[in-house]
Amino acid sequence: MRAFKNPVLALIALALLGLVFDFGFNAYIQLMALFVAVNCLMSMSLNLVNGYTGQFSLGHAGFMALGAYFTAFASNRLHLLPESIRTVELFAYVCGGGIVAAFAGLLVGLPSLRLKGDYLAIVTLGFGEIIRVALLNMDTLGGPRGFSGIPSIGPFLSSFLFASIWLLICFFTIWRLMGSSYGRGFLSVREDEIAAEAMGVNTTQMKVKAFVLSSFFAGVAGGLFAFFTNFINPSSFGFLTSVNAVIMVVLGGMGSMTGSIVGAIIVTILPELLRPLQDLTGVDLRMVIYSLSLILVMILRPQGLFGGLEISDLWRKYVKRSS
Fold first, then answer.
1. What is the C-alpha separation between 315 and 300, in angstroms, rounded?
2. Taking Cα atoms as reference points, which of 269, 30, 268, 265 lies closest to residue 156?
3. What is the structure's pLDDT at 323?
4. pLDDT at position 270
5. Across 149-266, where does the E strand assignment appear?
6. Residue 110 near residue 198, CB atoms below 8 Å
7. What's the confidence (pLDDT) of residue 109?
8. pTM summary value
9. Residue 232, strand partner residues
10. pLDDT of residue 272
11. Which ranges of the chain have pLDDT less than 70?
12. Which residues on adjacent β-strands are paired with residue 231?
């Protein structure tokens, strides 16, 4: 029961936050909050591969696309439960999207994760582009026109609570995993792969397991994205989507779960906060300032905002020490 105490408290806090957003803010801010949730899932899942296991994947958008299109197709064509409990069915479809993405991650990971560094990045990038081009040529899924008619989860509070459940599942799954023997295996691969192999760790197997779990949550993020936008097309899952996920992880700090969340919030919200500048100056300077901000952070804080620490570590390091 003690293991479930923190997730339950976090879910209650997020539900209360959903109430505040629902009654205190307009629909635009509510939608941005949902996009923040999707990007938090993306960054936390990618952090498992890039941060904890020390690999470099650039194909996360491909797994997100698989989850999004499976969820969209299933929810649009299948109606198995009554409307009153439709959310249960949609939850199952999101799980299915994650499983499809995880299976694709297994197929890609088995041959490619024997590679290292730039070679692995090129392979995963190629996989993401293959998925995007394949979707462009599949008329059943809308092709270049995209897939429309995706049902909504419900009112914003239901959507936010739905996303919050998946955020907590992702966060606490990875959190508990990294405290287990499997997590130590992931970290050993990151620190010194040759030494890990000498100690009997099957490094390829560890990398594949991390890749599959990461792909699952990327597929879940894609399913949530489909429900929140009600329309998807292949251009939503291009190379820049994968790059944004990498930026979130690096900005927050490689190997920091709370850093990944903060990085996702900044990358999602900062361009929108800078949008009024165009009305003031007559020139769209948003992406210039956004890019310069990222460059300054990387110069002044190359290890990321949190480094490899969690917010609890910072609390013990700075707050408790000063008191």
1. 21
2. 30
3. 57
4. 86
5. 231-232
6. no
7. 85
8. 0.90
9. 147
10. 85
11. 1-8, 10-11, 15, 18-19, 21-24, 80-85, 154-157, 314-315, 317-323
12. 148
**Tell me, what's the pLDDT at 155?**
60
Work out how many domains the chain is built from and give that number: 1
Residue 113: the pLDDT is 75
**Which residue is listed with tokens 């995880």?**
102
Residue 103 falls within a domain, yes or no? Answer: yes
Residue 311 covered by a domain: no
Residue 314 resides in a domain: no
Domain holding 24, by residue range, is 2-239
pLDDT in tens, 21-30: 666 677 788 8
Give the C-alpha separation, 161 to 224, whole Å.
12
